[in-house]
Amino acid sequence: MHRRGTWVTAAVGAALAVVLTATVAVPATAHRDSRARPQAGVKVPNDRSGLPWASGVFIPYAAPSQIEDFGNWRGAAPDVVLLYGARETWDQIVKPAWLKGWRDTAFTLVISTAMLPEDGGTLAECARGDFDARWRRYGRDIAAAGVASRTVIRLGWEFNGLWVRWAAKNPAHYAQCWRRVHRSVELAAPKVRWDWCVNRSMSSVGIDPRRAYPGNKYVDIVGIDSFDGFPPATTEEGWEQQHSGAYGLEFWAAFARARGKGFSVPEWAVYPGTSWEGAGGGDNPAYIARMFRFFRQNADILAYEVYFNEHDPYQGGALNLNPLSAEEYRDQIARMLRRDCQECVRPMG
Question: Taking the domain 41-338, which CATH number applies?
Answer without folding.
Answer: 3.20.20.80
